[in-house]
Write a structure and sequence with these properties.
The protein is an alpha/beta fold. It is built from 12 helices and 12 strands. Helix 8 (about 200-215) links the parallel strand 6 (about 190) and strand 7 (about 225). Helix 1 (about 15-25) crosses helix 2 (about 25-35) and helix 5 (about 85-100) packs across helix 12.
Length: about 350
Amino acid sequence: MPADAIPAPTFGRVTISDVARAAGVSVPTVSKVVNGRYGVAPATLKRVMTVVEELGYETSLVASSLRRQRTNVIGILVAEFESFSVELLKGASAAAAEAGYELLAYSGLVAGNGSVGWERRSLSRLAGTLIDGAVIVTPTVLIPTTSIPVVAIDPHTGQGGPATVDSDSLGGSRVATRHLIELGHRRIAHFRGRSDLASAQLREAGYRESLAEAGIEFDPTLVLDGGYQTAQTAAAALELLTRADRPTAVFAANDMSAIGVLQAAHELGLRVPEDLSVIGFDDIPEAARATPPLTTMAQPLHDIGAQALRMLIELLGGGDVPERVHLPAKLVVRGSTGPVPGQ
């Protein structure tokens, strides 16, 4: 090994003692350097910083927060990492980088009966010591008071508690249903989302409103539970699409459910869109890759994540933010919708 090479620790997390030993200085000297305090000679400072970079030393977030009352880290709390939350995370990550913040993505424990209230448990673990503030994706309960600033994305219960960011579920579902009606469809089914989600309730309401506007009588037998899940929707769609009076079109409350409908149609030998038109909601990456590519209502997921992050940074700085930011959804027509069969 060259004489000026820096020996790395043999295992485990790099400690301040490792840095001191490699740099040939005392632990207090390293502490002064990494915390930006005066009293260190320029040559020593350069040597210590070289060792810090080469060993990959990082001060403890917990220790830093106790010392400075800030971590410069923002938490993104999600129930699980799936396509919807990952797309939001991409937007939030870009906004955090622009503002000079680090991002901690954290998935709360939601197994079994632990799903309701997962965000409160997550906040109690992270708030104040690991993160300065949090963006919570689809929180299950209202969080009226918190020890750190919080912004919610698409909360289950709708507006209430912290500042929220969401897209226009009601207006978007009206547009989605109207698109099918304009293609000549009259028998349109709807796979609704989870009953505990305000967004799912709004999407069903928009579907019903567009039917009423077009003079189409609402048929409750054409509304089924999809739960925002592909497998659950596919199983229900197999039964729906084998009925003698099956629908000619389906509006699914999210893209994962719409993909479930496509799977069921393929299994039954139905052609999409020649025999059945299908439209979803979200525009996750899987929508464009579906067979055929899925027509959908595109939520601006990256923008939603970025907007929530910027609102949180404003709150951290002591500023005011709107109680709710409502972003529009846009119709993206692909290959899964077409005229009603026979036209």
